[in-house]
Amino acid sequence: MPGFSMEFLPIKKIGPFAPYVGSEDNFQKAVARYLDAKGVLWFHCPNGGHRNVAEAAKLKAMGVKAGIPDILILEPRKFCYGFAIELKVGKNKCTDHQNEMRRHFIAHNWHVLVSYSLDQVIYEIDKYLS
To answer: Does residue 4 belong to any structural domain of this protein?
Structure first.
């Protein structure tokens, strides 16, 4: 499925997957533990958080880009170069920068997921890697 994406499906917290209850940081840590246990080549780019103006300018000059997904899995599959995952909790929604990056990844044949559910992330990772 070249450029497959959940982008055009409604992002809902209902259905077979339970929404994650807790902070986005803990959601991220749970996914990190799962990916590490699977032996997957992946990384998290820590773009978020609060920084002072000088630190933010320094990071921007070093190449930090707004909207990069929370998790990038660098293991290509037959029709995808990698898997980009954006994690959300509660009523959080993707920013304009995140939506722009999602479109960019999709256009370059990455599998893309925005999820509010640890169960869904695990399911999609296992499906992608199989």
So the answer is: no
b/e code 3-32 from CB counts within 10 Å (16+ = b): eebbbeeeeebeeebebbeeeeeebbebbe
- Tell me the pLDDT tens digit for each residue of 82-97: 999 999 999 999 999 9
| CATH number of the domain to which 85 belongs | 3.40.1350.10
* Residue 122 phi, psi (nearest 5): -60, -45
pTM given for the model: 0.84
Q: Number of structural domains, the chain?
A: 1
Give 1-59 pLDDT, tens digit per residue.
344 444 443 444 446 899 999 999 999 999 999 999 999 999 998 777 677 889 888 88
What does the DSSP 8-state code read for residue 20? P
Tell me the β-bridge partners of 87.
115
